[in-house]
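ok posting inputs for the GCB job
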Amino acid sequence: MTAFLNRPIASRGSSCPCYFLLLLVAISFAALPCFAAPAPIVLTGADSRPSTSLNGEWASIIDPYFSGLFSFHHEEKKNGYFMNYKAKPGDPFPTEYDFSKAPKLKVPGDWNTQRESLMFYEGPIWYEKDFTYDPKPHTHVFLHVGAANYHSWFWVNGQKVCEHEGGYTAFNCEITQAIHSGNNFVVAAVDNTRHEDNVPTLETDWWNYGGLTREVSLIELPDSFIDQYDLHLSHSEDGVIEGWVHVVGGQSGGKAEVGIPDLHARASAAIGADGRAALHFNVQGLERWTPESPKLYKVVIRAGADSIDESIGFRTIETRGTEILLNGKPIFLRGVAIHAEAPYRTGRAWSDKDAETLLGWAKELGCNYVRLAHYPHDETMLRAADRMGLLVWSENPVYWALEFDNPKVLAKAEQQLDEEINTSRNHAAIILWSMANETPNTPARTQFIETLATRARDLDPTRLITAALLVRGKGDTKIVDDPLGQALDVIGINEYIGWYEGRPESADTTQWQIAYQKPVIVSEFGAAAKAGLHGAENERWTEEYQANVYHHQLPMLNKIPQLRGMSPWCLMDFRSPNRPLVGIQDEFNRKGLISDQGQKKSAFYVLQKAYKYKTVGRPD
Ligand code: GCB
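and the output
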Protein backbone atom coordinates (compact mmCIF):
# COMPACT_ATOMS: atom_id res chain seq x y z
CA MET A 1 0.00 0.00 0.00
CA THR A 2 2.75 2.41 0.98
CA ALA A 3 4.63 1.68 -2.21
CA PHE A 4 1.51 2.20 -4.24
CA LEU A 5 0.73 5.56 -2.72
CA ASN A 6 4.34 6.64 -3.15
CA ARG A 7 4.15 8.45 0.18
CA PRO A 8 3.04 7.02 3.51
CA ILE A 9 -0.37 8.65 3.08
CA ALA A 10 -2.02 6.01 5.25
CA SER A 11 -0.30 7.41 8.32
CA ARG A 12 -0.99 10.97 7.28
CA GLY A 13 -4.42 10.23 6.00
CA SER A 14 -5.89 8.06 8.75
CA SER A 15 -8.10 10.97 9.70
CA CYS A 16 -9.24 11.40 6.09
CA PRO A 17 -13.00 10.96 5.81
CA CYS A 18 -12.47 9.63 2.29
CA TYR A 19 -10.14 6.81 3.27
CA PHE A 20 -12.59 4.19 2.04
CA LEU A 21 -12.79 5.92 -1.33
CA LEU A 22 -9.03 6.07 -1.47
CA LEU A 23 -8.83 2.35 -0.85
CA LEU A 24 -11.27 1.71 -3.68
CA VAL A 25 -9.21 3.85 -6.03
CA ALA A 26 -6.11 2.01 -4.89
CA ILE A 27 -7.65 -1.37 -5.52
CA SER A 28 -8.89 -0.42 -8.95
CA PHE A 29 -5.49 1.01 -9.91
CA ALA A 30 -3.76 -2.06 -8.56
CA ALA A 31 -6.03 -4.24 -10.68
CA LEU A 32 -4.79 -2.60 -13.88
CA PRO A 33 -2.05 -4.57 -15.56
CA CYS A 34 0.36 -1.61 -15.44
CA PHE A 35 3.59 -3.56 -15.61
CA ALA A 36 2.97 -6.38 -18.03
CA ALA A 37 3.26 -5.16 -21.58
CA PRO A 38 4.05 -7.22 -24.64
CA ALA A 39 7.12 -6.33 -26.67
CA PRO A 40 6.39 -4.10 -29.64
CA ILE A 41 6.44 -5.69 -33.08
CA VAL A 42 8.06 -4.69 -36.34
CA LEU A 43 5.89 -4.07 -39.40
CA THR A 44 7.60 -3.96 -42.76
CA GLY A 45 6.64 -0.87 -44.74
CA ALA A 46 4.21 0.33 -42.05
CA ASP A 47 4.22 3.75 -43.73
CA SER A 48 2.50 2.32 -46.78
CA ARG A 49 -0.52 1.18 -44.73
CA PRO A 50 -3.60 3.34 -44.12
CA SER A 51 -3.30 4.92 -40.69
CA THR A 52 -4.79 7.53 -38.38
CA SER A 53 -2.23 10.16 -37.60
CA LEU A 54 -1.55 11.14 -34.00
CA ASN A 55 0.85 13.84 -35.13
CA GLY A 56 0.30 17.34 -33.86
CA GLU A 57 0.44 18.92 -30.43
CA TRP A 58 0.89 16.71 -27.40
CA ALA A 59 0.78 17.95 -23.79
CA SER A 60 4.21 17.67 -22.18
CA ILE A 61 5.65 17.51 -18.66
CA ILE A 62 9.38 17.76 -18.05
CA ASP A 63 10.33 15.28 -15.37
CA PRO A 64 14.10 15.22 -14.74
CA TYR A 65 13.77 13.00 -11.65
CA PHE A 66 11.21 10.76 -13.37
CA SER A 67 8.88 11.17 -10.41
CA GLY A 68 5.94 10.57 -12.73
CA LEU A 69 7.05 6.95 -12.95
CA PHE A 70 9.07 6.27 -9.79
CA SER A 71 8.16 6.69 -6.13
CA PHE A 72 10.38 8.37 -3.58
CA HIS A 73 11.95 4.95 -2.87
CA HIS A 74 12.37 4.42 -6.61
CA GLU A 75 9.66 1.83 -7.02
CA GLU A 76 7.66 1.89 -10.24
CA LYS A 77 4.39 3.65 -9.48
CA LYS A 78 1.00 2.24 -10.24
CA ASN A 79 -0.61 5.66 -10.28
CA GLY A 80 2.01 7.61 -12.17
CA TYR A 81 1.43 10.33 -14.70
CA PHE A 82 0.40 7.68 -17.21
CA MET A 83 -2.99 7.54 -15.41
CA ASN A 84 -3.66 11.09 -16.69
CA TYR A 85 -5.72 11.50 -13.54
CA LYS A 86 -7.94 14.59 -13.36
CA ALA A 87 -8.07 15.87 -9.81
CA LYS A 88 -11.56 16.01 -8.28
CA PRO A 89 -12.80 18.11 -5.41
CA GLY A 90 -12.52 16.14 -2.20
CA ASP A 91 -9.82 13.79 -3.49
CA PRO A 92 -8.05 12.46 -0.40
CA PHE A 93 -4.69 12.80 -2.12
CA PRO A 94 -3.00 15.54 -4.06
CA THR A 95 -2.53 15.26 -7.82
CA GLU A 96 0.61 17.11 -8.72
CA TYR A 97 0.37 17.08 -12.50
CA ASP A 98 -2.26 18.06 -15.03
CA PHE A 99 -1.75 17.33 -18.70
CA SER A 100 -4.68 19.56 -19.63
CA LYS A 101 -2.73 22.59 -18.39
CA ALA A 102 0.68 21.45 -19.57
CA PRO A 103 2.54 23.18 -22.42
CA LYS A 104 2.58 21.46 -25.79
CA LEU A 105 5.28 19.85 -27.86
CA LYS A 106 4.94 19.04 -31.54
CA VAL A 107 5.06 15.44 -32.66
CA PRO A 108 6.98 14.53 -34.69
CA GLY A 109 9.85 16.60 -33.46
CA ASP A 110 12.79 16.58 -31.13
CA TRP A 111 12.05 18.58 -27.99
CA ASN A 112 15.45 20.32 -28.01
CA THR A 113 14.71 22.68 -30.87
CA GLN A 114 11.15 23.43 -29.77
CA ARG A 115 11.95 25.21 -26.51
CA GLU A 116 15.14 27.04 -25.70
CA SER A 117 15.25 25.60 -22.18
CA LEU A 118 15.26 22.09 -23.65
CA MET A 119 18.18 22.53 -26.02
CA PHE A 120 20.63 20.71 -23.72
CA TYR A 121 18.03 18.71 -21.79
CA GLU A 122 18.73 15.03 -21.24
CA GLY A 123 16.18 13.12 -19.20
CA PRO A 124 12.57 12.00 -19.24
CA ILE A 125 9.69 14.01 -20.68
CA TRP A 126 6.04 12.96 -20.58
CA TYR A 127 3.70 13.32 -23.55
CA GLU A 128 -0.09 13.04 -23.60
CA LYS A 129 -2.65 13.15 -26.39
CA ASP A 130 -6.43 12.63 -26.46
CA PHE A 131 -8.06 10.92 -29.39
CA THR A 132 -11.37 9.34 -30.25
CA TYR A 133 -11.75 5.85 -31.57
CA ASP A 134 -14.49 3.71 -32.96
CA PRO A 135 -13.57 0.06 -32.41
CA LYS A 136 -14.20 -2.44 -35.15
CA PRO A 137 -14.65 -6.17 -34.64
CA HIS A 138 -11.84 -8.57 -35.61
CA THR A 139 -9.32 -5.76 -35.67
CA HIS A 140 -5.91 -5.40 -34.07
CA VAL A 141 -4.98 -1.81 -33.31
CA PHE A 142 -1.33 -0.81 -33.17
CA LEU A 143 0.27 2.38 -32.00
CA HIS A 144 2.95 2.98 -34.61
CA VAL A 145 5.94 4.99 -33.41
CA GLY A 146 8.39 6.06 -36.14
CA ALA A 147 11.10 6.63 -33.49
CA ALA A 148 11.40 7.76 -29.87
CA ASN A 149 14.85 8.65 -28.60
CA TYR A 150 16.01 6.74 -26.58
CA HIS A 151 13.99 4.74 -24.06
CA SER A 152 10.22 5.04 -24.24
CA TRP A 153 7.17 3.76 -22.39
CA PHE A 154 3.58 3.93 -23.66
CA TRP A 155 0.21 3.67 -21.93
CA VAL A 156 -3.26 3.87 -23.44
CA ASN A 157 -6.07 4.80 -21.03
CA GLY A 158 -3.69 4.11 -18.14
CA GLN A 159 -2.74 0.64 -19.35
CA LYS A 160 0.86 0.00 -20.23
CA VAL A 161 1.08 -1.11 -23.85
CA CYS A 162 4.81 -1.27 -24.44
CA GLU A 163 8.34 -0.21 -23.67
CA HIS A 164 11.11 0.25 -26.22
CA GLU A 165 14.81 0.97 -26.34
CA GLY A 166 16.66 2.47 -29.27
CA GLY A 167 16.18 5.94 -30.69
CA TYR A 168 16.19 5.45 -34.44
CA THR A 169 13.93 2.56 -35.35
CA ALA A 170 10.18 2.20 -35.76
CA PHE A 171 8.06 -0.07 -33.55
CA ASN A 172 4.41 -0.95 -33.12
CA CYS A 173 2.63 -1.49 -29.81
CA GLU A 174 -0.57 -3.50 -29.80
CA ILE A 175 -3.24 -1.47 -28.00
CA THR A 176 -6.34 -3.50 -28.92
CA GLN A 177 -7.08 -4.45 -25.30
CA ALA A 178 -6.53 -0.94 -23.97
CA ILE A 179 -8.48 1.13 -26.46
CA HIS A 180 -12.25 1.66 -26.25
CA SER A 181 -15.09 3.41 -28.00
CA GLY A 182 -15.15 7.20 -27.72
CA ASN A 183 -12.52 9.25 -25.91
CA ASN A 184 -9.13 7.70 -25.31
CA PHE A 185 -5.76 9.00 -24.27
CA VAL A 186 -2.21 7.93 -24.89
CA VAL A 187 0.64 8.83 -22.57
CA ALA A 188 4.30 8.35 -23.45
CA ALA A 189 7.40 8.86 -21.38
CA VAL A 190 10.56 9.36 -23.41
CA ASP A 191 13.98 9.43 -21.78
CA ASN A 192 17.08 10.41 -23.77
CA THR A 193 19.54 10.01 -20.88
CA ARG A 194 22.78 8.57 -22.21
CA HIS A 195 24.07 5.40 -20.52
CA GLU A 196 27.29 3.49 -20.94
CA ASP A 197 25.43 0.31 -21.83
CA ASN A 198 23.21 1.90 -24.48
CA VAL A 199 23.56 1.71 -28.25
CA PRO A 200 24.89 4.29 -29.02
CA THR A 201 26.79 4.85 -25.79
CA LEU A 202 27.88 7.96 -23.85
CA GLU A 203 30.00 9.57 -26.58
CA THR A 204 28.75 10.50 -29.99
CA ASP A 205 29.48 13.43 -32.30
CA TRP A 206 25.86 14.41 -32.84
CA TRP A 207 23.11 16.02 -30.82
CA ASN A 208 21.18 13.72 -28.54
CA TYR A 209 17.82 14.97 -29.79
CA GLY A 210 15.11 13.58 -27.49
CA GLY A 211 11.43 12.88 -27.85
CA LEU A 212 8.91 11.46 -30.28
CA THR A 213 11.10 12.43 -33.19
CA ARG A 214 9.18 10.68 -35.96
CA GLU A 215 5.51 10.23 -36.83
CA VAL A 216 3.05 8.50 -34.49
CA SER A 217 -0.14 6.89 -35.79
CA LEU A 218 -2.73 4.17 -35.28
CA ILE A 219 -2.69 1.24 -37.65
CA GLU A 220 -5.60 -1.20 -37.83
CA LEU A 221 -5.00 -4.73 -38.99
CA PRO A 222 -7.37 -7.68 -39.40
CA ASP A 223 -7.39 -10.77 -37.16
CA SER A 224 -4.68 -12.36 -39.18
CA PHE A 225 -2.25 -9.92 -40.75
CA ILE A 226 0.99 -9.55 -42.70
CA ASP A 227 3.73 -8.24 -40.42
CA GLN A 228 6.79 -8.65 -42.62
CA TYR A 229 7.66 -9.38 -46.24
CA ASP A 230 10.64 -9.37 -48.53
CA LEU A 231 10.47 -9.25 -52.32
CA HIS A 232 13.62 -8.92 -54.39
CA LEU A 233 15.16 -9.90 -57.69
CA SER A 234 16.89 -13.29 -57.63
CA HIS A 235 20.69 -13.15 -57.91
CA SER A 236 20.92 -16.56 -59.50
CA GLU A 237 17.93 -16.73 -61.85
CA ASP A 238 17.29 -14.09 -64.44
CA GLY A 239 13.79 -12.56 -64.50
CA VAL A 240 12.77 -14.15 -61.21
CA ILE A 241 11.37 -12.34 -58.18
CA GLU A 242 11.66 -14.23 -54.93
CA GLY A 243 11.07 -13.64 -51.26
CA TRP A 244 8.53 -14.34 -48.58
CA VAL A 245 5.49 -13.00 -46.79
CA HIS A 246 5.03 -13.61 -43.07
CA VAL A 247 1.53 -13.74 -41.64
CA VAL A 248 0.61 -13.48 -37.95
CA GLY A 249 -2.40 -15.53 -36.87
CA GLY A 250 -2.79 -17.03 -40.34
CA GLN A 251 -3.85 -20.62 -40.78
CA SER A 252 -1.18 -22.97 -41.96
CA GLY A 253 -2.09 -23.88 -45.53
CA GLY A 254 -3.78 -20.49 -46.14
CA LYS A 255 -2.41 -18.44 -49.02
CA ALA A 256 -0.32 -15.31 -49.43
CA GLU A 257 -0.47 -13.58 -52.81
CA VAL A 258 1.65 -11.01 -54.59
CA GLY A 259 0.68 -9.08 -57.68
CA ILE A 260 2.58 -6.58 -59.84
CA PRO A 261 -0.15 -5.16 -62.09
CA ASP A 262 2.22 -3.36 -64.52
CA LEU A 263 4.01 -6.61 -65.25
CA HIS A 264 0.82 -8.69 -65.30
CA ALA A 265 2.53 -10.86 -62.72
CA ARG A 266 0.75 -12.74 -59.94
CA ALA A 267 1.97 -15.42 -57.61
CA SER A 268 0.72 -17.16 -54.53
CA ALA A 269 2.11 -19.61 -52.01
CA ALA A 270 0.87 -21.59 -49.05
CA ILE A 271 1.59 -20.25 -45.57
CA GLY A 272 3.67 -22.76 -43.61
CA ALA A 273 3.49 -23.64 -39.93
CA ASP A 274 6.04 -20.88 -39.26
CA GLY A 275 3.65 -18.30 -40.74
CA ARG A 276 5.79 -17.83 -43.85
CA ALA A 277 4.89 -18.21 -47.49
CA ALA A 278 7.92 -18.50 -49.79
CA LEU A 279 7.50 -16.83 -53.17
CA HIS A 280 9.33 -17.40 -56.41
CA PHE A 281 7.93 -16.28 -59.73
CA ASN A 282 8.93 -15.22 -63.23
CA VAL A 283 8.41 -11.74 -64.56
CA GLN A 284 8.77 -10.54 -68.11
CA GLY A 285 9.74 -7.10 -69.27
CA LEU A 286 10.92 -5.96 -65.83
CA GLU A 287 12.78 -2.67 -65.86
CA ARG A 288 15.52 -2.80 -63.27
CA TRP A 289 15.91 -0.04 -60.70
CA THR A 290 19.05 2.02 -61.28
CA PRO A 291 20.14 5.46 -60.02
CA GLU A 292 19.64 6.79 -63.56
CA SER A 293 16.20 5.26 -63.92
CA PRO A 294 14.76 4.44 -60.48
CA LYS A 295 11.76 2.49 -61.65
CA LEU A 296 9.34 1.54 -58.87
CA TYR A 297 6.50 -0.91 -59.33
CA LYS A 298 3.22 -1.02 -57.50
CA VAL A 299 3.19 -4.33 -55.67
CA VAL A 300 0.08 -5.67 -53.98
CA ILE A 301 0.64 -8.14 -51.16
CA ARG A 302 -2.34 -10.02 -49.81
CA ALA A 303 -3.12 -12.66 -47.20
CA GLY A 304 -6.70 -13.33 -46.17
CA ALA A 305 -8.35 -10.03 -45.26
CA ASP A 306 -5.07 -8.12 -45.15
CA SER A 307 -3.49 -6.35 -48.10
CA ILE A 308 -0.72 -3.80 -48.61
CA ASP A 309 0.02 -1.63 -51.64
CA GLU A 310 3.75 -1.22 -51.84
CA SER A 311 6.09 0.59 -54.17
CA ILE A 312 9.17 -1.51 -54.83
CA GLY A 313 12.14 -1.31 -57.18
CA PHE A 314 14.01 -4.42 -58.30
CA ARG A 315 17.78 -4.67 -58.73
CA THR A 316 20.66 -6.88 -57.68
CA ILE A 317 23.78 -5.98 -55.77
CA GLU A 318 26.85 -8.17 -55.24
CA THR A 319 30.61 -8.08 -55.15
CA ARG A 320 33.06 -9.85 -57.44
CA GLY A 321 36.66 -9.57 -56.35
CA THR A 322 37.15 -5.88 -55.72
CA GLU A 323 34.13 -4.85 -57.77
CA ILE A 324 30.68 -3.80 -56.62
CA LEU A 325 28.15 -4.91 -59.19
CA LEU A 326 24.75 -3.26 -59.51
CA ASN A 327 22.54 -5.33 -61.81
CA GLY A 328 25.67 -7.25 -62.77
CA LYS A 329 27.62 -4.15 -63.84
CA PRO A 330 30.53 -2.51 -61.99
CA ILE A 331 29.55 0.73 -60.31
CA PHE A 332 31.49 3.50 -58.59
CA LEU A 333 29.63 5.02 -55.64
CA ARG A 334 29.85 8.80 -55.88
CA GLY A 335 28.44 9.75 -52.54
CA VAL A 336 28.25 11.93 -49.49
CA ALA A 337 27.50 11.20 -45.84
CA ILE A 338 24.32 12.63 -44.33
CA HIS A 339 23.09 13.04 -40.75
CA ALA A 340 19.34 13.19 -40.09
CA GLU A 341 19.64 16.89 -39.34
CA ALA A 342 16.78 19.05 -40.62
CA PRO A 343 17.87 21.60 -43.22
CA TYR A 344 17.22 25.28 -42.41
CA ARG A 345 15.41 24.75 -39.09
CA THR A 346 17.93 22.27 -37.56
CA GLY A 347 16.72 19.52 -35.24
CA ARG A 348 15.95 15.94 -36.15
CA ALA A 349 14.85 15.49 -39.77
CA TRP A 350 11.67 13.51 -40.33
CA SER A 351 9.49 14.95 -43.12
CA ASP A 352 9.29 14.31 -46.87
CA LYS A 353 10.41 17.88 -47.35
CA ASP A 354 13.52 17.36 -45.15
CA ALA A 355 14.35 14.22 -47.11
CA GLU A 356 13.80 15.85 -50.48
CA THR A 357 15.94 18.86 -49.58
CA LEU A 358 18.85 16.76 -48.29
CA LEU A 359 18.74 14.21 -51.06
CA GLY A 360 18.08 16.96 -53.63
CA TRP A 361 21.42 18.50 -52.62
CA ALA A 362 23.10 15.11 -52.93
CA LYS A 363 21.72 14.81 -56.48
CA GLU A 364 22.90 18.34 -57.29
CA LEU A 365 26.35 17.29 -56.12
CA GLY A 366 26.25 14.48 -58.68
CA CYS A 367 25.84 11.62 -56.22
CA ASN A 368 24.48 8.20 -57.03
CA TYR A 369 24.95 7.08 -53.42
CA VAL A 370 24.52 8.40 -49.85
CA ARG A 371 25.78 7.14 -46.53
CA LEU A 372 22.94 7.67 -44.06
CA ALA A 373 24.98 8.05 -40.88
CA HIS A 374 25.10 6.98 -38.01
CA TYR A 375 21.79 5.26 -37.31
CA PRO A 376 18.79 4.15 -39.33
CA HIS A 377 17.08 7.17 -40.89
CA ASP A 378 13.36 7.79 -41.21
CA GLU A 379 11.41 5.82 -43.82
CA THR A 380 10.71 9.16 -45.55
CA MET A 381 14.42 9.32 -46.38
CA LEU A 382 14.48 5.79 -47.76
CA ARG A 383 11.33 6.32 -49.82
CA ALA A 384 12.85 9.51 -51.23
CA ALA A 385 16.09 7.67 -52.04
CA ASP A 386 14.05 4.98 -53.85
CA ARG A 387 12.23 7.65 -55.88
CA MET A 388 15.26 9.84 -56.56
CA GLY A 389 17.71 7.07 -57.47
CA LEU A 390 20.24 7.22 -54.66
CA LEU A 391 21.91 4.06 -53.41
CA VAL A 392 22.01 3.91 -49.62
CA TRP A 393 24.42 2.76 -46.92
CA SER A 394 22.16 2.20 -43.88
CA GLU A 395 23.84 2.07 -40.48
CA ASN A 396 23.29 0.44 -37.08
CA PRO A 397 24.18 2.91 -34.28
CA VAL A 398 27.17 0.85 -33.08
CA TYR A 399 29.36 3.92 -32.83
CA TRP A 400 32.81 4.29 -31.23
CA ALA A 401 33.41 2.41 -27.97
CA LEU A 402 30.38 0.45 -26.80
CA GLU A 403 30.61 -2.04 -23.93
CA PHE A 404 31.52 -4.78 -26.38
CA ASP A 405 31.96 -7.41 -23.68
CA ASN A 406 28.48 -6.85 -22.25
CA PRO A 407 25.90 -9.36 -23.59
CA LYS A 408 23.08 -6.91 -22.78
CA VAL A 409 24.64 -4.37 -25.11
CA LEU A 410 24.90 -7.00 -27.84
CA ALA A 411 21.20 -7.78 -27.37
CA LYS A 412 20.37 -4.07 -27.77
CA ALA A 413 22.45 -3.79 -30.94
CA GLU A 414 20.84 -6.95 -32.31
CA GLN A 415 17.36 -5.65 -31.58
CA GLN A 416 18.04 -2.38 -33.39
CA LEU A 417 19.61 -4.23 -36.32
CA ASP A 418 16.56 -6.51 -36.57
CA GLU A 419 14.23 -3.51 -36.50
CA GLU A 420 16.25 -1.66 -39.12
CA ILE A 421 16.36 -4.60 -41.53
CA ASN A 422 12.82 -5.83 -41.00
CA THR A 423 11.34 -2.36 -41.39
CA SER A 424 13.28 -1.31 -44.47
CA ARG A 425 14.19 -4.49 -46.31
CA ASN A 426 12.21 -3.71 -49.48
CA HIS A 427 13.96 -0.48 -50.41
CA ALA A 428 15.81 -0.90 -53.69
CA ALA A 429 17.97 2.05 -52.63
CA ILE A 430 19.57 0.22 -49.69
CA ILE A 431 22.54 -1.83 -50.87
CA LEU A 432 24.73 -1.82 -47.75
CA TRP A 433 23.98 -2.66 -44.14
CA SER A 434 26.68 -1.06 -42.04
CA MET A 435 27.36 -2.76 -38.76
CA ALA A 436 29.46 -0.10 -37.03
CA ASN A 437 31.48 3.10 -37.18
CA GLU A 438 35.08 3.60 -35.97
CA THR A 439 35.13 0.94 -33.30
CA PRO A 440 38.29 0.14 -31.31
CA ASN A 441 40.23 -2.88 -32.53
CA THR A 442 39.81 -5.38 -29.68
CA PRO A 443 38.90 -9.08 -29.72
CA ALA A 444 35.61 -8.36 -27.87
CA ARG A 445 34.69 -5.72 -30.47
CA THR A 446 35.53 -8.04 -33.36
CA GLN A 447 33.43 -10.84 -31.93
CA PHE A 448 30.54 -8.48 -31.22
CA ILE A 449 30.42 -7.11 -34.75
CA GLU A 450 31.00 -10.49 -36.37
CA THR A 451 27.91 -11.67 -34.49
CA LEU A 452 25.96 -8.73 -35.90
CA ALA A 453 27.26 -9.36 -39.41
CA THR A 454 26.21 -13.01 -39.27
CA ARG A 455 22.79 -11.96 -38.03
CA ALA A 456 22.39 -9.37 -40.79
CA ARG A 457 23.31 -11.97 -43.42
CA ASP A 458 20.81 -14.44 -41.97
CA LEU A 459 18.09 -11.80 -41.99
CA ASP A 460 18.95 -10.50 -45.43
CA PRO A 461 21.34 -12.45 -47.64
CA THR A 462 20.67 -10.11 -50.59
CA ARG A 463 22.69 -7.09 -49.49
CA LEU A 464 26.30 -6.30 -48.71
CA ILE A 465 27.74 -5.99 -45.21
CA THR A 466 30.10 -3.17 -44.37
CA ALA A 467 31.47 -1.09 -41.48
CA ALA A 468 33.52 2.10 -41.29
CA LEU A 469 36.97 1.11 -40.01
CA LEU A 470 39.74 3.15 -38.47
CA VAL A 471 43.08 3.33 -40.22
CA ARG A 472 46.54 3.17 -38.66
CA GLY A 473 49.58 5.01 -39.91
CA LYS A 474 53.30 4.29 -40.27
CA GLY A 475 55.21 7.22 -41.70
CA ASP A 476 53.50 8.17 -44.93
CA THR A 477 51.71 4.85 -45.16
CA LYS A 478 48.13 4.30 -44.10
CA ILE A 479 47.42 0.72 -43.16
CA VAL A 480 44.02 -0.92 -43.23
CA ASP A 481 44.31 -4.29 -41.53
CA ASP A 482 41.62 -4.21 -38.84
CA PRO A 483 40.65 -7.90 -38.42
CA LEU A 484 37.00 -6.89 -38.61
CA GLY A 485 37.58 -6.53 -42.36
CA GLN A 486 37.38 -10.31 -42.66
CA ALA A 487 33.69 -10.23 -41.72
CA LEU A 488 32.81 -7.56 -44.30
CA ASP A 489 31.88 -7.64 -47.98
CA VAL A 490 32.89 -4.03 -48.48
CA ILE A 491 35.55 -2.23 -46.43
CA GLY A 492 34.63 1.23 -45.21
CA ILE A 493 37.53 3.53 -44.27
CA ASN A 494 37.39 6.82 -42.39
CA GLU A 495 40.40 9.13 -42.59
CA TYR A 496 40.98 12.83 -41.91
CA ILE A 497 44.33 13.59 -43.54
CA GLY A 498 44.62 17.37 -43.63
CA TRP A 499 42.25 17.94 -40.73
CA TYR A 500 42.90 15.81 -37.63
CA GLU A 501 46.39 14.96 -38.86
CA GLY A 502 48.89 16.60 -41.15
CA ARG A 503 48.23 19.29 -43.69
CA PRO A 504 46.01 19.03 -46.78
CA GLU A 505 49.20 18.42 -48.85
CA SER A 506 50.09 15.40 -46.69
CA ALA A 507 47.65 13.47 -48.88
CA ASP A 508 50.03 13.91 -51.86
CA THR A 509 52.64 11.62 -50.35
CA THR A 510 50.33 9.19 -48.56
CA GLN A 511 50.54 5.54 -49.60
CA TRP A 512 47.84 2.99 -48.86
CA GLN A 513 48.36 -0.57 -47.72
CA ILE A 514 45.06 -2.44 -47.59
CA ALA A 515 45.07 -6.01 -46.37
CA TYR A 516 41.83 -6.95 -48.08
CA GLN A 517 41.20 -7.66 -51.75
CA LYS A 518 37.66 -6.41 -51.37
CA PRO A 519 35.90 -3.27 -52.60
CA VAL A 520 36.77 -0.19 -50.54
CA ILE A 521 34.56 2.81 -49.83
CA VAL A 522 36.24 5.79 -48.22
CA SER A 523 33.27 6.34 -45.99
CA GLU A 524 34.58 9.61 -44.48
CA PHE A 525 37.14 12.30 -45.13
CA GLY A 526 36.72 16.04 -44.86
CA ALA A 527 37.48 19.27 -43.07
CA ALA A 528 35.50 21.98 -41.31
CA ALA A 529 34.67 25.43 -42.65
CA LYS A 530 32.36 28.16 -41.54
CA ALA A 531 30.21 29.15 -44.52
CA GLY A 532 31.14 32.64 -45.65
CA LEU A 533 34.49 32.67 -43.84
CA HIS A 534 37.25 33.29 -46.39
CA GLY A 535 41.01 33.39 -46.10
CA ALA A 536 44.16 31.63 -47.16
CA GLU A 537 44.28 27.96 -48.15
CA ASN A 538 46.20 27.15 -45.00
CA GLU A 539 43.85 28.99 -42.65
CA ARG A 540 41.65 26.57 -40.78
CA TRP A 541 37.87 27.06 -40.69
CA THR A 542 37.88 28.97 -44.01
CA GLU A 543 36.09 27.70 -47.09
CA GLU A 544 39.46 27.79 -48.86
CA TYR A 545 41.04 25.39 -46.37
CA GLN A 546 38.17 22.93 -46.68
CA ALA A 547 38.28 23.13 -50.49
CA ASN A 548 42.05 22.58 -50.38
CA VAL A 549 41.58 19.38 -48.38
CA TYR A 550 39.27 18.13 -51.14
CA HIS A 551 41.76 19.20 -53.84
CA HIS A 552 44.44 17.02 -52.25
CA GLN A 553 42.21 14.15 -51.15
CA LEU A 554 40.67 13.36 -54.53
CA PRO A 555 43.92 12.53 -56.38
CA MET A 556 45.07 10.51 -53.39
CA LEU A 557 41.88 8.46 -53.36
CA ASN A 558 42.38 7.70 -57.04
CA LYS A 559 45.58 5.87 -56.09
CA ILE A 560 43.70 3.25 -54.06
CA PRO A 561 43.28 0.43 -56.59
CA GLN A 562 40.20 -1.14 -55.00
CA LEU A 563 38.41 2.18 -54.37
CA ARG A 564 34.77 1.65 -55.36
CA GLY A 565 33.12 4.56 -53.66
CA MET A 566 33.35 7.53 -51.34
CA SER A 567 31.10 9.49 -49.01
CA PRO A 568 32.96 12.55 -47.71
CA TRP A 569 31.98 13.92 -44.34
CA CYS A 570 29.49 15.41 -44.86
CA LEU A 571 26.61 17.01 -46.77
CA MET A 572 25.36 19.57 -44.24
CA ASP A 573 26.56 21.08 -40.96
CA PHE A 574 24.90 19.38 -38.00
CA ARG A 575 24.56 20.09 -34.31
CA SER A 576 27.09 18.50 -32.00
CA PRO A 577 27.78 19.40 -28.36
CA ASN A 578 31.46 18.51 -28.97
CA ARG A 579 31.89 21.64 -31.08
CA PRO A 580 31.87 24.68 -28.78
CA LEU A 581 34.24 27.04 -30.65
CA VAL A 582 32.51 30.40 -30.39
CA GLY A 583 31.83 32.28 -33.60
CA ILE A 584 32.88 29.33 -35.75
CA GLN A 585 31.25 26.14 -34.55
CA ASP A 586 28.68 27.39 -32.03
CA GLU A 587 27.73 23.77 -31.32
CA PHE A 588 27.73 22.72 -34.96
CA ASN A 589 30.06 20.27 -36.64
CA ARG A 590 31.09 22.43 -39.60
CA LYS A 591 32.34 19.71 -41.94
CA GLY A 592 29.26 20.13 -44.10
CA LEU A 593 29.65 21.03 -47.75
CA ILE A 594 26.51 23.07 -47.10
CA SER A 595 25.72 25.08 -43.97
CA ASP A 596 22.70 24.27 -41.82
CA GLN A 597 21.06 27.28 -43.50
CA GLY A 598 21.61 25.91 -46.98
CA GLN A 599 24.67 27.97 -47.97
CA LYS A 600 26.97 26.02 -50.28
CA LYS A 601 30.66 26.21 -49.42
CA SER A 602 33.51 26.22 -51.97
CA ALA A 603 34.30 22.53 -51.39
CA PHE A 604 30.78 21.65 -52.57
CA TYR A 605 31.76 22.86 -56.04
CA VAL A 606 35.11 21.07 -55.96
CA LEU A 607 33.38 17.77 -55.34
CA GLN A 608 30.55 18.54 -57.74
CA LYS A 609 33.07 19.11 -60.53
CA ALA A 610 34.95 15.90 -59.73
CA TYR A 611 31.70 13.93 -59.79
CA LYS A 612 30.46 15.62 -62.95
CA TYR A 613 33.63 15.00 -64.94
CA LYS A 614 34.30 11.71 -63.19
CA THR A 615 37.82 12.74 -62.29
CA VAL A 616 37.54 10.78 -59.07
CA GLY A 617 36.89 7.05 -59.05
CA ARG A 618 36.38 5.06 -62.17
CA PRO A 619 33.92 6.08 -64.81
CA ASP A 620 31.13 3.50 -64.93
C1 GCB B 1 34.32 10.77 -37.53
C2 GCB B 1 33.00 10.25 -37.12
C3 GCB B 1 31.90 11.25 -37.32
C4 GCB B 1 32.37 12.61 -36.84
C5 GCB B 1 33.54 13.03 -37.70
C6 GCB B 1 34.14 14.38 -37.28
O1 GCB B 1 35.24 10.07 -37.76
O2 GCB B 1 32.68 9.04 -37.74
O3 GCB B 1 30.77 10.84 -36.63
O4 GCB B 1 31.36 13.55 -36.85
O5 GCB B 1 34.55 12.09 -37.60
O6 GCB B 1 33.66 15.39 -37.73
O7 GCB B 1 35.06 14.37 -36.47
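notes: The CA atoms of residues 25 and 151 lie 29 Å apart. DSSP finds nine helices and 33 strands in the chain.
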